[in-house]
Structure formats: C-alpha cells, structure tokens
Amino acid sequence: MSAATSATIMLVHGACHANWCWDRVVPLLQQAGHRIVTPDLPGRGDRGKPDWRWTLKAYADAIIEDARQTGGPVIVVGHSMGGPVISAAAESAPDLFDRLVYVSACLPSNGDSLASIAAMDKDSDLEGASSVAWLKGVVTINPDRLKPVYYGDCSDADLDWVRPRLVPESLRPSIIKVRLGDNFQSVPRSYIRCTQDRGLSIQMQDRLIERQPCQHVATLEASHSPFLSMPDPFVKALLSVI
C-alpha cells in the first residue's frame, strides 16, 4: 500500500485488555490518513462483563460484525491473543478482510489453540504470569508479572495507567482449537516481530512465521506492547507491512 492510500484499519486487542490499549497509536494512524476502528472484544466495554461464557467464536463473530459495519473490507491487526481471533474471523468471512496483521501475536495453524502455542514456547517467561479462577472460568494477569513479561520497556507511569484498566479474561478462547482452511489462507498475512517480548518469545514468533509464512515481516526492538512503549516506531512498522 502506498503512503497516499487510505485504508480502514481495525485494531484488535489481546487478553485482559480492551480498546484503550491503542490510544497512543490511533491519532498517529489517523494523521496518516487512515480510518481506524478499535472494537472491544466481548466481556468488556459495551459487550458484557468478563466471565466464562465468552468463546473464541463469540470473539470472532464480534470482529466480523464490526468489519461489516465499516462498509467494506478492512485491514485487521491482532495483538497477542488477538491473533487467533482475527484468524478465526478470516476463516468465517474472508471477504471482509484485506489483510491480517499479527503484532507479537499467536499466529495459529489449523488445530492450534492459544494454550497449545504457549506450551510450545520454551523461551518465554509465561510461567507464573497469570492465575486461573477455575470456578469462574477466567484468567487474570498477576500484577507483579505485568512489567517483566508484557510491558518490559514501558515506564512506571505507563504501568500505573494500565493496571486499573485490565480485566479478567474468559478461559475458553485460550483453550479452543482454531479450525483454519482455505478461507484463512486466501487472506494475505503480515507480522510485526517484537524481539524483547517475554510473553511470546522471539524464537516462538519466528517459529509461527515459519509455519504460516507471511508476505511482509517487520521487526521492532520492543517488548510485548509496542503500541504503548514506542507508538511512533510501531505505526511506522505497521504502515510498512500493509
């Protein structure tokens, strides 16, 4: 895409977050001439409370609904858990998506789940990073692991802004296997690697890209959350892969 081309870009957040996480990059993308959509996944905002009922299909269906409301195909960007979400949405409704962009995200192959990808990642610091309330069917990020695992290059002020905004996440989307076929494969893919990520290691990111090759790949010397730690380089990287 040329710098002069305007696109509709949908930004899909990861687990325990909501659309607020994109606040620093939205104005930069708008200044570049793009229309930006930042949906909340179910279980936050106007889409209900966080609990066990929400599934990966419910998340994908929400993205499909929002893409339809834009009036045309969108470039959809998924961060972290947003990777399986946008993949499932593309499998169900490929005509709604011009491109899938993964930002340090779980890029699944058919039959993967978020949990199975995490289990394969032997180089991350995920152990002890979250707690599961089994009776409630939700998972939460342990506060003392937030910075080292997910926000390593962010300031203390950034973390103070993030902590009160985090929500419990339904466990079900993480354990459900993603079923992907020709529809998913028909949508072009890009990936933004984050070399300092301790939630999804760079080794695992590269393995995912090897299994599901992407047309464009960009790299940031960033932790798991470059939209907060380095919004300008993040936007530059994003625009380079769409």
Any overview of this molecule?
The chain is an alpha/beta fold and 242 residues long. It has one domain (8-241): 3-Layer(aba) Sandwich (Rossmann fold). 34% of the residues lie in helices and 17% in strands. The protein has 11 helices and 9 strands. A 6-stranded parallel β-sheet has the order 2-1-3-4-8-9, with helices on both faces. The longest helix has 14 residues, at 56-69. The model has no long low-confidence stretch (mean pLDDT 95).
Short description:
With about 240 residues, the protein is of the alpha/beta class.
**Element order, helices and strands?**
EHEHEHEHEEHHEHHEHEHH
> What structural category do the secondary elements indicate?
alpha/beta
- Weakly predicted, low-confidence segments: none
What is the average of the pLDDT values? 95
Give descriptors for this structure.
single chain; 242 residues; alpha/beta; Rossmann fold; 3-stranded antiparallel sheet; 17% strand; globular
Describe the SSE topology.
Elements: E1 8-12, H1 26-31, E2 35-37, H2 56-69, E3 74-79, H3 82-92, E4 97-103, H4 114-120, E5 130-133, E6 138-141, H5 146-150, H6 156-162, E7 169-170, H7 172-175, H8 182-185, E8 189-194, H9 202-211, E9 216-220, H10 226-229, H11 231-241
Parallel strand pairs: 1-2, 1-3, 3-4, 4-8, 8-9
Antiparallel strand pairs: 5-6, 6-7
Helix pairs in contact: 2-3
